[in-house]
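Issue 218. Parser rejects a valid record. Input:
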Amino acid sequence: EPGEGTGTTPTPGKTPTTVSKDKFSKHFTLAQLVGSATITPKRGYTVQQQIDNLRALAQVILDPLVDAGLKFNINDGYRNGTTGSDHVIGCAVDCGPVGISAYDFAKKAYELVGATSKQFLLEYTTKGKVGWVHIAYNPSGAKSGLRMATFENHGNAGGGKQWNNQFKNLRGTA
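Output the parser choked on:
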């Protein structure tokens, strides 16, 4: 039952050669969340489990943001790698706000989906104060030890600053 897309959904346990461009949530396709990455089994998750994670992320976190009128680009959804990042198992997305500051986007998005997210981070780089919002979601309902924070240059990991349990407007206007 093909939709508007032309790709195929990866088969569990198989490395996909194409990723579906069919809608798998109200507003998103698998291809939008995967980009050029290849979904492969990792950290005990099968390909299908990771696709299911991405679908839940889109339906529970991203679709409500779009429904509320927030505009954003998906800077980074699923990514390859072996790190402990939720991105590598399909449970996190980085949103690049459009037409609104990252700080204002974070505040509005947190009001909408903060309670259901696993982790919610407002991140900036020093160069130009470019910002994005990292939102992690775990279908099991698990929460991170660091639920909400602002990072500048990836916080402690990048030698920058970290503010826990708050959003800090690094542009100087609250």
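Fixed in the parser; the record now loads. The two ends are 49 Å apart (CA to CA).
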